[in-house]
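Work Package 4 report. The design task specified in the project plan requires that, given a folded chain encoded as structure tokens, an amino acid be chosen for each position. We show below one input record used in the internal validation round.
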């Protein structure tokens, strides 16, 4: 992302590097908001699954329906 100009390194704390988003990165996120929202939703669902939480009922029903096809 740094090579693309979307973020830049601002400081370093030991082995950790801190980054901030650039104007180009913000523009990229705005242009790709739908993809970002989709990725964040999948990450949230995965986190819930790992914690043992069941998926939303409509998703569970859709998955069950697909298995029968």
């Amino acid at each position: 992302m740094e090579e693309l100009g979307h973020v830049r390194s601002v400081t370093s704390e030991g082995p950790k590097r801190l980054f901030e988003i650039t104007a180009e990165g913000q523009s990229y996120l705005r242009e790709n908001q739908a993809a970002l929202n989709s990725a964040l939703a999948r990450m949230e669902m995965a986190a819930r699954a790992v914690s043992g939480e069941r998926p939303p009922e409509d998703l569970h029903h859709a998955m069950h329906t697909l298995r029968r096809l």
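The first strand starts at residue 7 and ends at 13. Validation will be extended to a larger panel in the next phase.
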